Amino acid sequence: xxxxxxxxxxxxxxxxxxxxxxxxxxxxxxxxxxxxxxxxxxxxxxxxxxxxxxxxxxxxxxxxxxxxxxxxxxxxxxxxxxxxxxxxxxxxxxxxxxxxxxxxxxxxxxxxxxxxxxxxxxxxxxxxxxxxxxxxxxxxxxxxxxxxxxxxxxxxxxxxxxxxxxxxxxxxxxxxxxxxxxxxxxxxxxxxxxxxxxxxxxxxxxxxxxxxxxxxxxxxxxxxxxxxxxxxxxxxxxxxxxxxxxxx
Length: 248
What we know:
With 248 residues, the protein is of the alpha/beta class. The protein has a single domain (11-247), classed as Aldolase class I (TIM Barrel). The protein has 9 helices and 10 strands. The strands form 2 sheets. The chain has an 8-stranded parallel beta barrel with strand order 1-4-5-6-7-8-9-10, surrounded by 5 helices. Helix 2 (53-59) links the parallel strand 4 and strand 5. 42% of the residues are buried.
């Protein structure tokens, strides 16, 4: 039996996300940063466009909440130099986590070197400055085998998390995609390598969280449910979790 609240509130696993407009959204970003600290604890990170990183850094001065931003987002089609320039600016502005979309379209077209080439370069640039999450866009993978193959391609040294989705494609995170990534993470762990998981793209309800708990816990264990290894990328989910916390 899975408890109704398998992980207390889940709030401290949240990457509280707003990726609506690359510019002109400052008031909403300020509101997001204010919401990041709640009476039930604070979220793991805010995840915002690069143009708002400086603002978030000013508003979250007392630490404890990471500032995540996106690169090569959302299509994964930028050139390597453009991605590195974007990441470099984000680091200078104060980003502490980089969620980078891998070039999944080129990978599906047969270029199996493009993903490790991009990720290795981003990891080198971020070394000692920010952790890196690789966004796979699992909802656009044509099969389970392709999802797992891409996950293995992303499992590079220095990658902290495999992330399901951008939230901008027609299909976001699904139980099937999470099962595939959990399989890869378990096999990595068996070889002595640890890597985290970020579930993002359409995660809105506690029922979804319970389903993901049922997938993750039997394989990776309850110890996996901590911000260092599991993140949930969402926006509206925080309100549901806060409401539930008032009644639990």
